[in-house]
Amino acid sequence: MNLIVLSALDTSSRDTGLEHLRRHHPDAIFLRYDFVDGNRLVRHVFGSATAERAEAVLEHPCIGCATKFEILPTIRRLAPQDSETTMVLGLPSTWHSASVLQMLETQLEPLDLQISSIALALDPAELENQMWDRHTLWESGFNAMEHDARTAGEFFFTELMQADTLIPVEGLEAQLLEDAAGPRRAGGIRYEAGLGLARQMAPHAQICVHEGELGSFHPAAARQRTSAGHLPRTPLDASSAPIRLHAERPLHPERFRQALPSLAESCTCIRGVLWVASALSERVAIGGAGPRIWMENTGAWHSHIAVSELLLYGSEHEASQIETVFEQCQVTEEELKGLFNSANHEGGEWHES
Length: 353
Hints:
Helix 2 (63-78) crosses helix 3 and helix 5 runs antiparallel to helix 8 (219-226). The strands form 3 sheets. The chain has an 8-stranded mixed beta sheet, sandwiched between helices. A 5-stranded antiparallel beta sheet has the order 9-13-10-11-12, sandwiched between helices. The protein contains 11 helices and 15 strands. The chain starts with a strand and ends with a strand. The mean pLDDT is 91. 33% of the residues lie in helices and 25% in strands. The radius of gyration is 23 Å and the shape is globular.
């Protein structure tokens, strides 16, 4: 049996995505979950299986408990012996598919059930605004987990890399308030611009519209794409490619710190790796989603070539202008000579001469 997992930022996009998948797989079993106030996980079963609606109260409001005690047992119960059957699992809004897959993958083998696709339903017309939203997912009303400090941008930062299929959907507000030719409806100017941004940020993913094909899930490829510091391939068409910054010399830590706000300004998303003079042996990953930027020490460079490289998505900068700013962050030839001198570089720490 094949399992398709669908994630989304909001329930409206998730439900529209499920209807899209139902047109693709009219004989599939559909399993949809919603996490609501009171630590309640609500289950809906429909499609080719007997319709169900039930809820479970979880002791801990976490994905692990929900998967272990509710989602996995339900999949086991509903899974038919027919290997040709498809089951579609619609996750609660804002849940990362990878968090569920970590628990499901080893448990599904005895059921002869394989994950065929990881899909993400999103409203292209709202993608850029959601990437820039400063509020947490709970503050924005996307989920009922008060202590979830993630933003919508951070959700998309990870999920766009995890998913092998993107399902663009019209937002509920656009459907209710705009006519068919509106800018946020399918084919409208905002919708198409957002779809272009989604393609840019997830170049590996299959865009599934109308009767288009779904992508295929490959665990090793998904793990690589979501690893800290991974740099996705960029399209050959320069007009639709992110700005790529490259530095072969280490970055001066203070100059880079001062330049980072200018580099990140107007960037919808940032992905990259840094080689910093104050930690020459360490590979530092950098990520950014709208107003939030974070860094992570991923350990020694090992088989990686020590270099700094950034991808800036949605930037309004002129490439040449921002390349100059980044180039000035590198250590100079004089600083580079002193950098490897034991008098100036002891224990991996930067020492100004």
